[in-house]
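Figure 3 (text version): structure tokens given as input.
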């Protein structure tokens, strides 16, 4: 064999060895993502660092040998991560939204790790705190309502809102913030609770008019509290613990549960692909223990425990969702309905409000101004016209019957970049866009026409 052939043979063997090594290394890395050692625990959560860091610190004192990794994601992204990234490690799912746990339960991504029977499931009102089928446990209680900055309202001489309907008052124009339900599982529950307590059509009328007063729609629910605390706007639509913890840490803020709110469990469960079940169960047991439940009272957390007994240790004036006072404010929430139409409601909110914020604000401004000028005028024709403008702004392109039709709502999925949407969803959303534009444009035309006629009437008055 000449020298050139020897060199070729040598180069071939080197390349082959390198290729085998690279393949083996890749396989080892992939395997390590699934079959991990028992000293690592991965928790997927939508909770803020102020909460999960506190629990991680206390749990690590009990199990110093464990490495705890937190995958912090908004609720919709957490669902996608658990469902669509099967090689990524995940042991525990920990979040506020019951809808999210029902999604993962039905898709087979949670383990049936808890023994329960219907008769033994604790409840908040009529709602079970734990999954009767044993796939997840309630670990805290979430309430929803209105948060505000006292200094902001005092400086601008604005009244404190006490009910959802107050937020439609034009005096709050540009003073309210909320997040989009498609970006926040907690905001979805707020929107859904309004739709269930008010009824489909009336609920959307309320949401549309509140939309006219919004200063912004934030990307995440945390952005609402940050905006209220910083005084970028004075009022927020929020989950309770974000407002309560800000107040407990000295911010000039308060929180109110309006009538028609809902109290629902935040949950915790085992991801079906867990490779460290013992550590995952130990963490869940800690969260549900007396020690874990009393951590919820801390100023940086301020969540409502699921354990009735620990409220004896609560700070003075701490809200108790098991009390008669708060129970009377809560509705009977249909989680199955909320879960079934989750993506449809979120898509509809985005089309009607999130993507048309400027048009919604502009039109409601004109409607409110015309209504105010007509209050002391005997001009029935113009009153009828502005009522038509209000009807157009309050209309929604989905009927109440469609909203509870399982076949109709099944056409919708989460909108993810780079992923094609269902054909029916694309078609329906395009129809909704045309509906929203036509109704809002017509309402604005009518309102401006009424304002012009009122100006003419003023000029013509002697």
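Below: residues designed for each position.
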């Amino acid at each position: 064999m000449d020298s050139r052939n020897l060199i070729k043979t040598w180069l071939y063997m080197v390349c082959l060895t390198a290729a085998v090594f690279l393949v083996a290394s890749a396989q080892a890395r992939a395997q390590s993502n699934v079959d991990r050692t028992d000293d690592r625990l991965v928790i997927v959560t939508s909770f803020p660092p102020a909460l999960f860091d506190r629990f991680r610190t206390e749990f690590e004192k009990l199990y110093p040998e464990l490495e705890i990794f937190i995958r912090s994601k908004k609720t919709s992204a957490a669902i996608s991560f658990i469902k669509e990234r099967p090689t990524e490690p995940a042991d525990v799912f920990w979040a506020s939204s019951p809808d999210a746990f029902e999604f993962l339960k039905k898709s087979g991504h949670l383990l049936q790790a808890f023994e329960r029977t219907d008769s033994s499931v604790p409840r908040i009102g009529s709602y079970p705190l734990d999954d009767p089928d044993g796939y997840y446990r309630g670990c805290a209680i979430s309430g929803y309502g209105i948060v505000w900055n006292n200094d902001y309202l005092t400086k601008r001489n604005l009244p404190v809102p006490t009910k959802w309907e107050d937020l439609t008052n034009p005096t709050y124009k540009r003073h309210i913030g909320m997040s989009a339900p498609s970006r926040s599982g907690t905001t979805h529950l707020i929107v859904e609770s309004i739709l269930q307590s008010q009824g489909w059509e009336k609920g959307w009328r309320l949401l549309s008019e509140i939309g006219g007063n919004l200063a912004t729609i934030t990307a995440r629910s945390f952005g609402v509290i940050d905006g209220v605390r910083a005084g970028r706007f004075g009022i927020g639509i929020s989950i309770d613990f974000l407002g309560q913890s800000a107040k407990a840490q000295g911010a000039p803020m308060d929180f109110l549960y309006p009538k028609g709110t809902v109290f629902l469990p935040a949950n915790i469960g085992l991801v079906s692909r867990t490779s460290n079940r013992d550590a995952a169960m130990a963490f869940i047991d800690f969260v549900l223990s007396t020690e874990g439940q009393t951590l919820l009272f801390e100023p940086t957390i301020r969540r409502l425990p699921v354990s009735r007994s620990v409220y004896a240790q609560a700070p003075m004036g701490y809200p108790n969702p098991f009390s008669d006072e708060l129970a009377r404010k809560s509705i009977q929430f249909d989680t199955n309905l909320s879960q079934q139409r989750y993506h449809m409601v979120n898509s509809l909110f985005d089309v009607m409000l999130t993507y048309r914020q400027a048009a919604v604000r502009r039109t409601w401004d004109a409607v409110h101004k015309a209504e105010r000028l007509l209050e002391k005028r005997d001009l029935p024709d113009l009153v009828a016209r502005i009522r038509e403008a209000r009807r157009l702004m309050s209309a929604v392109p989905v009927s109440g019957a469609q909203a509870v039709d399982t076949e109709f709502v099944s056409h919708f999925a989460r909108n993810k970049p780079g992923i094609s949407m269902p054909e029916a969803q694309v078609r329906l959303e395009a129809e909704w866009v045309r509906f929203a534009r036509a109704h809002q444009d017509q309402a604005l035309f009518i309102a401006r026409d009424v304002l012009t006629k009122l100006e003419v009437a003023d000029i013509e008055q002697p």
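Residues 40-140+263-327 form a domain with the D-Maltodextrin-Binding Protein; domain 2 fold (CATH 3.40.190.10).
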